[in-house]
Amino acid sequence: MFLEEQDQIPWAALVYVTGQINYGGRVTDDLDRRCLMSILKKYYVPDILDDGYTFTPSGTYYAPPEGDLQSYRDYIDDLPLVEAPEVFGMHPNANITFQMQETKKMMDTVLSIQPRATSTEGGKSPDDLVAALAAELAASIAPTLSFDEAVEGLFDRTASGQLKSLSVVLSQEIERFNRLTKVVNASLKELQKAIKGIVVMSFDLEQMYTNFLNNQVPGIWERAAYPSLKPLGGWMEDYHKRIAFMRNWLQHGNPKTYWLPGFFFPQGFMTGVLQTHARKYAQPIDSLNFTFEVLEGKEVAEDVAEAVADGVLIDGLFVDNARWNREERFLDESEPGVMCSNLPVVHFVPIQHYNPPPLLAPADPKEYQCPLYKTSVRAGLLSTTGQSTNFVLTVGLPIRPGTTSDFWVLQGVALLCALND
């Protein structure tokens, strides 16, 4: 219909009908729809009519020239049996990520079906190992956070009788961490009692026992905790680091930089920052949006000498499937074999009447709206905002000259609050 009724091929209409209606109507997430549209733009372009146009940089995949049936069969037979990442616009590192994920699935399956070993001569039994680990972890748990530790003035009210927005965020985070700490402490004590036969080994404790043997985070902890993909050892280290960050904030006041991965609910912190700016300048909060600046020479929090007047400094973020080019100060392709890299300290600046480019806007040659997620799963429950609970916000980052935002969408570039190890 589109091809016969018009003198020229309506490429824009074809992309819209296919991406936004036929398929896009079934995609509810704007970031997923953006990915779909970026893929279609590789195929729904006038250049595809040229014999020299290829779908991949290597030239392996292209629309074969007009010919007989056998020529098309020969072309298909010559295609690789296993598709390379370039078919999907991805970096070669995607192969490594895929293989690591497949290996993890296989190892998880093996661990789930292995029988419980008994102690060998001179060795420790599983009960001894789990009991010792539970006792060690219980001894390392810090006391719950108490508002009595708060530095003077942190929870003072303003002249209008309101609590400071970031102090409210801190109090909510303290409540969440204290709830988690109580669950961790109680379960560790119950597990030690169950191993000794003092209490009944419940289903949750049985699962916790198995998780400890396999260096996995117990499900009873995961239900009370923040999203995390780390093994037990990494999870405990991260847990202690989060508690230490909150305690330092509580005892010494607002930090110069905020470690965003340390929050239970970073979306709430972002709202608190906007609310602080709105109250300071008497501006409507719904007229504010963040702009972003990656600071030069500020790799970690210790490199920052003083806090900023407006907005906040954020540290601890990671770039997944790309890297930050520190010399040229733009987003660049990953080094071979390096899946994730550190992002320097970022200044989040609230600006009034600034509207970031829509996710479904035409390809941008200067900036990529990079999604920030809590974990590398990049998925979560659908919240009341229409966004995944794992999604925080999009961060506008400058990109390498000669590329467009579509290139980075297909590369699967995102920012992460936490890695898997």
Automatic annotation (TrEMBL):
<dbReference type="GO" id="GO:0045505">
    <property type="term" value="F:dynein intermediate chain binding"/>
</dbReference>
<keyword id="KW-0966">Cell projection</keyword>
<protein>
    <recommendedName>
        <fullName>Dynein heavy chain C-terminal domain-containing protein</fullName>
    </recommendedName>
</protein>
<dbReference type="GO" id="GO:0000166">
    <property type="term" value="F:nucleotide binding"/>
</dbReference>
<feature type="domain" description="Dynein heavy chain C-terminal">
    <location>
        <begin position="101"/>
        <end position="417"/>
    </location>
</feature>
<dbReference type="Pfam" id="PF18199">
    <property type="entry name" value="Dynein_C"/>
</dbReference>
<dbReference type="Pfam" id="PF18198">
    <property type="entry name" value="AAA_lid_11"/>
</dbReference>
<dbReference type="GO" id="GO:0005929">
    <property type="term" value="C:cilium"/>
</dbReference>
<dbReference type="InterPro" id="IPR026983">
    <property type="entry name" value="DHC"/>
</dbReference>
<keyword id="KW-0175">Coiled coil</keyword>
<dbReference type="GO" id="GO:0051959">
    <property type="term" value="F:dynein light intermediate chain binding"/>
</dbReference>
<keyword id="KW-0547">Nucleotide-binding</keyword>
<keyword id="KW-0969">Cilium</keyword>
<dbReference type="InterPro" id="IPR042219">
    <property type="entry name" value="AAA_lid_11_sf"/>
</dbReference>
<keyword id="KW-0206">Cytoskeleton</keyword>
<dbReference type="InterPro" id="IPR043160">
    <property type="entry name" value="Dynein_C_barrel"/>
</dbReference>
<dbReference type="InterPro" id="IPR041658">
    <property type="entry name" value="AAA_lid_11"/>
</dbReference>
<keyword id="KW-0963">Cytoplasm</keyword>
<feature type="domain" description="Dynein heavy chain AAA lid">
    <location>
        <begin position="1"/>
        <end position="94"/>
    </location>
</feature>
<dbReference type="GO" id="GO:0030286">
    <property type="term" value="C:dynein complex"/>
</dbReference>
<dbReference type="InterPro" id="IPR041228">
    <property type="entry name" value="Dynein_C"/>
</dbReference>
<dbReference type="GO" id="GO:0007018">
    <property type="term" value="P:microtubule-based movement"/>
</dbReference>
